[in-house]
Amino acid sequence: MAPSTFQPTSWRTPDIEEYRAQVRRFVATEVAPHQQRWAKQQHVDRELWNKAGALGMLASDVPSEYGGSDGNVAHQTVMIEELTAVGDTAFSISVHAIVQQYILKQGTEEQKRRYLPKLASGEMVGAIAMTEPGGGSDLQGVRTRAERQGDHWVLNGAKTFISNGFLADLVVVVARTGTEPGARGISLLLVETKDRPGYRVGRVLEKLGQKGQDTCELFFEDVHVPADAVLGGETGRGFYQLMTELPYERTLIAISAVAAVERAVQITADYARERMVFGKPLLEMQNTRFVLADAKTKALVARTFLDRCIEALAEGRMDSVTASMAKLWTTDLQCEVIDDCLQLFGGYGYMLEYPIAQMYADARVQRIYGGANEIMKELIARSL
Amino acid sequence: MRLTDEQRAVQEAVRAYVQAEIAPHAAEWDRTHHFPKEQLRGLADLGCWGIAVPPEWDGAGLDYSTLSVVLEEIAAGDGATSTVVSVNNCPVCSILMAFANAAQKERFLKPLARGDMLGAFCLTEPHVGSEAGGLRTTARRDGDHYVLNGVKQFVTSGKNADVAIVMAVTDPDAGKKGISAFVVPTATPGYTVARIEEKLGQHASDTAQILFEDCRVPLANRLGEEGMGLKIALSGLEGGRIGIASQSIGMARAAFAAALAYAKERVAFGKPIFEHQAVQFRLAEMATQIEAARQLVHHAAALKDAGEPCLKEAAMAKLFASEMAERVCSAAIQIHGGYGYTADFPVERIYRDVRVCQIYEGTSEVQKILIGRALA
After folding, report:
1. A277 vs B131: CB contact, 8 Å cut-off?
2. Strand (E) or helix (H) holding B268
3. What is the pLDDT of residue A8?
């Protein structure tokens, strides 16, 4: 999109733009050429994680003492924006980053030293096992249980819709460790999946879009994990721990939503400039001009809001209600704008070889995961 | 608008067949891109291939209102199958009814109406979508034949069809009046399926790019006079739009039914989600939108059956119903939450299938152009 002179982007420093150039090269060589194959095999190549890790791209907002790059959420933003710019939804770095934040902010020193360097290098891929079959956004009803037996926890339960589930080496499992009802008995367990009897990866789910993302069912049958696997070392804090990182997770979703809106407007404007209808470029039709003018305006409004969210997050003052608003509004906008743009492609917009068709299929879940948009409204409404 | 006893009987018969023989397989056909020959035969035996074709030409002898009811039922089972049947009825059979001579009707309309031949319609070209002027496919006269050359795009059933109605330019200097229509058996040398498109949805129906390379068609296969092509092509579009609008309603209805059943079953925050006001209001709105669209389509069909002009009404019905259907299918996914995004639930497929209803048979924008002209 033509750059606007109105760009309130304090997070976009020269350093960040330098990093962007590096990320863009990486995405062009290591991601873009493989997208179709990944969609077919339903996961990225495992080596991709190691390659990104070797370049410091997997732990940009983790301190260097834990193997990270001492950056902040701006670096994470750049990564998401550049992946979105080529239409990638397979490489789920966001979930990996959230696992890192859980450990960094909530973990014991021992947990940080054990896991953060491996997550930074790509030696370990992170996933979060929260949702259960029949559970959805209703976290209080978690049924997966961990029973204490000697110096171990014994884990039983089933999880679904787990991003990175197929390749995951470290899974943050939401489980009941106590008998208290509702939120109070919940803990987060760090489960290493390698050579872990009773841990089973179910099928990679067949989805409407995001075909290259390994979204899985996970099963735990008498899985033994060491006593010190509880995140932060203290049981019963899981619900609180989950809540503290939700603003981060929801802002990351909003980042990808706005980046997708910007891409949709750009590729559609490019198409409309070239495509001839009734003797003139499609872009000269008033309907096209107005639809795209509307979309571009919304994109800038969204970008402006988002940039403030990124700044707030970088400064550690992002609140849950604002993050819910960002997730709700930008993902609704993403679906709306992509739909309007697809329509301008006519029949070609329905053909999967055109990126806009792929973006349409990929976008729909943004209004569902990370807390369905109805849940966002509930959370926002509670602040009234 | 109330269905007649006859329409209700047809509806019941088609619904029973579709729900038993088509709906249960739709997901698998989508996955495997399977063209449902056997079930299309079953629909043909019920008369669905030539609903408005008179009995003397082996059709069901019914009308467009009944066609609308039938296509809604088929689409409620599988959107892709309904597209194949829709195209065969209209524009293919409807054009032959209006413009074919007795010999052509005998050779083509009869088997098409019976379901012994499947029809396709070749109008769109790679560079022209909803704009019927500007065609580049040519038909050059050579003795008692025409020689067709050119490329046709997004041809529904282009691979599986036995016969195609093809629009081609016979007089390049005459502009819109230089187009003629031909009936081309797909086995004719020079009719080549260049590619099968990979689409967002409707995988059970093949959408093909057809290459005409020195494809020789006898003079006897020309429909009407030379230069009548555009008129012929446009004549089929009204009924076609009523058809797509009806399909949209069928797909929306199926997504709605799935969402309603799910909402009553699924418990969150201590009660069935149907009892959460946001969900119940959403379902109430979906049901209202579907019914409003249905009435609009039946009105357009009733005008057509009465022989009254219905260009504007058909365009309005197609515009409203197709846009309604996308909204309803999206809402149905949202009610399903994460499950709605997976292929384990039908709404995922229906959402992909329904999107093209706003595109084929004239995009929403073209419908607005037509409605706008009617207002001018």
Report:
1. yes
2. strand B267-268
3. 55
**Closest partner residue to A357 among B200, B337, B338, by Cβ?**
B200
3-state helix, strand, coil in chain A (%, to 5): 55, 15, 30
The CATH number assigned to the domain holding A35 equals 1.10.540.10
Q: Could you tell me if B280 lies within 8 Å of chain A, comparing CB atoms?
A: no
Per-residue pLDDT at A181: 79
B361 noted as active-site residue: yes
Closest chain A residue to B268, measured at CA:
A138
Interface confidence, given as ipTM, is 0.81
Provide the number of structural domains found in chain A. Answer: 3
Q: Is residue A6 in some structural domain?
A: no
Q: What is the pLDDT of residue B175?
A: 87
Q: Are residues A270 and A322 in the same domain?
A: yes
Residues of chain B with pLDDT under 70: 129-133
Regarding whether A165 and A73 lie in a shared domain, the answer is no
Pairing label, strands A170-176, A126-129:
parallel
Local structure of A76: helix, strand or coil: helix
How many A×B Cβ pairs under 8 Å?
100
Does residue A1 surpass a pLDDT of 80?
no
Q: How far is A243 from chain B (nearest CA, A)?
A: 18
Are residues A299 and A374 both part of a single domain? yes
Tokens describing residue B220: 């006897």
The last residue of one of the domains, among A193, A215, A237, is A237
Query: Which residue, chain included where needed, has tokens 């400064």?
Result: A315
pLDDT at A4 over 70: no
Q: Is the pLDDT of residue A100 over 70?
A: yes
User: Count of H helices and E strands in chain A?
Assistant: 11, 9
**What are the backbone angles phi and psi of residue A145, rounded to the nearest 5°?**
-120, 145
Residue A8 lies in a domain: no
Q: Which residues of A touch B333 (CB under 8 A)?
A: 208, 364, 368
Query: Does a structural domain hold residue A5?
Result: no
Of B199, B268, B337, the CB nearest to A352: B199
For residue A20, what are the domain limits? 14-124
Report chain A's mean pLDDT, rounded to a whole number. 94
Residue A115 and residue A74 share a domain: yes
Do both A220 and A342 map to the same domain? Answer: no
